[in-house]
């Protein structure tokens, strides 16, 4: 393999991991907004999201350029093709983090904090763990960890179904519906985070083995 091509691939790998680290930061900031009530973190989160978008578009452009100029085969082709999807998965996770923080900003405009927020906190922590595991799988090309992510996502899905059921139960007297609707937005975005973390795991398996499981 030509040294120049190998350097280009290594640069893409490094940039993908840098994007992943930035996305993990946006998720942690979103957690701080919703669970810790740190509304001052929203501005920083939005700035991080803009950087995520910039890095995502640059990664996509660079990967397409290498695909076009070098016509790679075998493992390198799988990596480059998967990178286009991996970067998109990461960008979407960051979008979900922003949507959660935006919902939280509206949620805290209401006087009472819903009791179900404790369950949402546990779901959020599981989702953060999934994102972290998916990034570790990418960094190490760890197929065992990558394959296990789908199993771990089952717990997030179970959280979603349970909390959804609670949020859709009859309202108490004088209870406002808007906080429940905002929490439905939150848990839906958390569930989607888990889905994309699972997809990242599948893409790691594809890079290494040539199939997604």
How is the secondary structure organized here?
Blueprint: H1 3-36, H2 41-70, H3 74-107, H4 117-140, H5 143-167, H6 178-209
Describe what this molecule looks like in 3D:
With 213 residues, this protein is mainly α. The protein has a single domain, classed as Phosphate transport system protein phou homolog 2, domain 2 (Methane Monooxygenase Hydroxylase, Chain G, domain 1), CATH 1.20.58. It has six helices and no strands. Helix 1 runs parallel beside helix 3. It is elongated. The two termini are 28 Å apart. The mean pLDDT is 91.
**What is the percentage of strand-forming residues?**
under 5%
Model regions low in confidence, pLDDT < 50 over at least 5 residues: none
The name of the CATH architecture is Up-down Bundle
CATH topology (fold) name: Methane Monooxygenase Hydroxylase, Chain G, domain 1
CATH class: Mainly Alpha
Helical amount: over 70%
Count of domain modules: 1
Instruction: Summarize the biggest pleated sheet.
Output: none
Quote the distance from N terminus to C terminus.
Answer: 28 Å
The rough form would be described as elongated
N-to-C SSE string, H for helix and E for strand: HHHHHH
User: Number of helical runs?
Assistant: 6
Please name the fourth-level CATH homologous superfamily: Phosphate transport system protein phou homolog 2, domain 2
